[in-house]
């Protein structure tokens, strides 16, 4: 897709809603701003006290304590962020020489740390609200992945810190009382995994069923559970399984044929736009 084509794509209501989730820029940080350590590997990146048991830092809180300039072996002064960790100090060298060079730096740019203000903001926006699931990749309370149901309403119970890749975990319950979670990121120009598993890729603001009046209730139930059957259209199959990783099109004996392949080994075979064979 060209840059001009990309600009012509209007933001969805979900895109606009997601703009409310922000990670605060460094220039706005106040002393005492809290971050939770998401992974013990943070000890390889930040300068923790040598006496510290570094395997025990996951889940611990660092509080922003300002910044200082420290010399490198080559004599260059670099800006170093400072954090309070109990009675100790923890340092993060930024490789930049001035605060102005970090004008776009935000909490998402701190590896292995999760900004708690960002988590609390997401919780205040989503808690007790109803959304419709776009993603079928759910997690149970033990953190194990489970196959969820798409396009159903759920009520968000809370948002809490996630992991070093996806900083937010959204806990929700279904209409039947089942409880599950999804990992979520927020959109950021510089954050890790910026466009992966953001709000618009996980949720709808309204019931998507009304967008597909030609889909029968029977087929819609299959779609919700990620299943297909012979006779479904290409649009219906894409709703059920997502976009294929491989597409081959052609014709045989007067019929238009399409072959769709997926990375998990699933394949779909269409004739004249209808599914005639598949492995799922």
Give the helix proportion (percent range): 10-25%
* Cα radius of gyration in angstroms: 23 Å
Mean pLDDT: 91
Principal-axis shape equals elongated
How far apart lie the N and C ends?
A: 30 Å
Write down the secondary-structure element order.
Answer: HHEEEEEHEEEEEEHEHHEEEE
Total helical elements? 6
Number of DSSP strand runs: 16
Strand content: 25-35%
Largest sheet: 5 strands, antiparallel
Q: Which regions have little confidence, pLDDT < 50, spanning 5+ residues?
A: 1-7
How many distinct domains?
Answer: 3
Overall structural class, as computed from helix and strand content, comes to: alpha+beta
Order of strands, main sheet, comes to: 4-3-2-1-5
Give a structural overview.
With 280 residues, this protein is α+β, with helices and mostly antiparallel strands. It is 15% helix and 33% strand. It folds into three domains: 25-105, no CATH class; 119-208; 212-279, Beta-lactamase Inhibitory Protein, Chain:B, domain 1 (2-Layer Sandwich), CATH 3.30.1450. The strands form four sheets. The protein has a five-stranded antiparallel beta sheet. Strands 11-10-9-6-12 form a five-stranded antiparallel beta sheet. The longest helix is centred in the middle third of the chain and has 11 residues, at 116-126. The chain is elongated.
Layout: helices, strands, pairs:
Elements: H1 3-8, H2 13-18, E1 34-37, E2 61-71, E3 77-85, E4 88-93, E5 113-115, H3 116-126, E6 130-133, E7 137-139, E8 145-147, E9 153-161, E10 168-174, E11 179-184, H4 199-202, E12 203-204, H5 217-224, H6 234-241, E13 246-252, E14 255-261, E15 267-271, E16 274-279
Antiparallel strand pairs: 1-2, 1-5, 2-3, 3-4, 6-9, 6-12, 7-8, 9-10, 10-11, 13-14, 14-15, 15-16
